[in-house]
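A reminder from the course coordinator: this example appears on the midterm review sheet, so study it carefully.

Given structure:
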């Protein structure tokens, strides 16, 4: 009996020591995670943030042989934000530790696409979408571009994926041959999510020579890769893909692949597809109708169809389709641009409206600039953003005239738009971001 009690006490003692050991390990893991600071969490407010070390100290920490010290440096860079952190983040993008590389790429993205209350950014793919119209036009340090190109071949799929999204966010067309080569190579990555990111980056950057590989990926074994490739073909306006995309639409007309195919055809806007767009204006699928009107706008077919579009607006119920109809009318020189501008106040349609205004470009810049006095600051901020993408002397003058803006968020948008204008030329009439 005593032997049994002694054995039980021994077991309990061992269990207690094991619990203590596990507790220590768990605590250490939590500390490591805290040091790492998740890349997609919003930074602490100035009231919450402690005093941050100066950049020279952070630079020293980023070069430390201790992974934990480098994680502290990464957290400090995340809390600081701003373009001055990019050279140090570039160093950490190539770190020996996987988690540091992952979060360094995330932090790079968040410098260009900072978290804002109206935009929920939880991963690189979401940041990529937001960046289409709302990225910060900071210059890209050469060492950062080099680091991201190397990261496209990282051993970790998540790093390769997010590096492709980051390249699509921060770089501008035309990219160097080295960048184009690496992103094209990523289109054949064994991991589907990397192929998706590569396809989307190729489309955003309009990489020369991407059309043939992207057409090949329209038949990829992974559905998401197929959808991303079709979208990218629309982004690069690949006329050679019209037949393949039309076949995709015909075969998958009632599915998501069919919707992606007609959206890509609409973005390309080849005159040969005008009959397809005209036929789809009466489709029972609202996504098909919306793409059809976009296609008529891009292909030059909206002018002939304008009377029918105006008549159909009376019975159309879908607000997104109505917005596309207004865009088509405006592209044909008819009354429609003010309807597009009115949609900026609708959160669900504001990004679509903003993209349409950028595509309508300089012929409508006066009508766009006239709304810089809109009572809604959100609308004014988007008007400013549109002018920054459109460019040209009228846009420059309008933004200069808005220097007395009282809303701080709109002032930030003005600064970003003016910086964009100093780095880019005017966007062509058919040049959606």
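Designed residues:
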């Amino acid at each position: 009996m005593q032997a049994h009690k002694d054995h039980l006490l021994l077991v309990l003692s061992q269990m207690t020591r094991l619990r203590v050991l596990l507790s220590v390990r768990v605590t250490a893991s939590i500390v490591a995670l805290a040091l790492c600071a998740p890349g997609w969490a919003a930074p602490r407010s100035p009231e919450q943030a402690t005093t941050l070390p100066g950049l020279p100290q952070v630079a020293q920490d980023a070069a430390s042989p201790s992974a934990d010290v480098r994680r502290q440096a990464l957290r400090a860079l995340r809390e600081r934000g701003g373009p001055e952190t990019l050279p140090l983040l570039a160093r950490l993008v190539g770190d020996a530790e996987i988690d540091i590389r992952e979060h360094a790429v995330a932090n790079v993205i968040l410098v260009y696409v900072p978290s804002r209350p109206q935009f929920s950014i939880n991963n690189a793919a979401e940041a990529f979408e937001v960046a289409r119209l709302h990225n910060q036009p900071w210059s890209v340090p050469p060492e950062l571009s080099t680091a991201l190109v190397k990261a496209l071949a990282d051993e970790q799929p998540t790093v390769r994926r997010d590096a492709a999204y980051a390249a699509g966010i921060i770089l501008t067309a035309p990219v160097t041959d080295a960048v184009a080569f690496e992103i094209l190579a990523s289109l054949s990555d064994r991991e589907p999510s990397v192929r998706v990111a590569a396809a989307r980056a190729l489309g955003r950057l309009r990489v020369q020579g991407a059309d043939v590989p992207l057409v090949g990926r329209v038949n990829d074994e992974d559905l998401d890769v197929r959808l991303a490739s079709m979208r990218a073909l629309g982004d690069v306006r690949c006329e050679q893909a019209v037949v393949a995309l039309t076949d995709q639409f015909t075969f998958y007309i009632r599915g998501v692949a069919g919707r992606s195919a007609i959206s890509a055809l609409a973005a390309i806007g080849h005159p040969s597809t005008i009959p397809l767009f005209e036929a789809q204006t009466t489709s029972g699928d609202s996504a098909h109708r919306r793409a059809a009107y976009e296609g008529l706008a891009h292909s030059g077919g909206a002018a002939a169809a304008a009377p029918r579009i105006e008549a159909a607006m009376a019975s159309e119920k879908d607000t997104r389709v109505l917005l596309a109809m207004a865009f088509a009318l405006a592209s044909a020189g008819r009354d429609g641009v003010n309807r597009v501008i009115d949609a900026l106040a609708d959160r669900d349609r504001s990004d679509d409206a903003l993209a349409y205004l950028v595509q309508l470009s300089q012929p409508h810049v006066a009508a766009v600039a006239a709304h810089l006095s809109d009572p809604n600051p959100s609308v004014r901020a988007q008007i400013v953003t549109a002018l920054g993408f459109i460019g040209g002397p009228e846009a420059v003058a309008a933004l200069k005239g808005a220097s007395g803006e009282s809303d701080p968020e709109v002032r930030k948008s003005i600064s970003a738009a003016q910086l964009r204008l100093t780095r880019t030329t005017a966007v062509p009439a058919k040049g959606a971001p």
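The mean pLDDT is 88. The two ends are 81 Å apart (CA to CA).
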